[in-house]
Amino acid sequence: MTADQADEVMAEYLLKGGKMLAKSCKVCGYPLFEYKGETQCVICPRVAPEEPLPEPEPPAPAPEPGRAPAPASREVQGEAAAEIERTIVHLCERIRTDQRPDECLTLMKAVERGARALARLGQR
Fold this sequence. Notes:
This is Sjogrens syndrome scleroderma autoantigen 1. It comes from Methanoculleus chikugoensis. The protein is mainly alpha-helical. The protein is built from three helices and three strands, in the order H-E-E-E-H-H. It has helices at about 5-15, 70-95, 100-124, and strands at about 20-25, 30-35, 40. It is globular and about 50 Å long. The model is unreliable at about 45-50 (pLDDT under 50).
């Protein structure tokens, strides 16, 4: 899996309500996620092949034009935005201390994608 593909997977889980943790996978080094009450790596298979990782749920239908999203939707978006902001801060801290240029580039791309996700949440 390329770094871009890994970034896409992580961004999808963040947008679907997954929580990126400050712990890294011991196999691939990417951050672990809490998703549907389970801590897991969303990049490498950490469970038996007959038990695949859960797929992100499809997005909720968009509100009708001219209608504001439901209050619960705003609350979830606010929580997602706060989690993305915390994740961006954590990634920036890792960038400051990591001596590997390739890893720094990967982390910087993840920060960029997180910023784009925040912008998209702000537009809703």
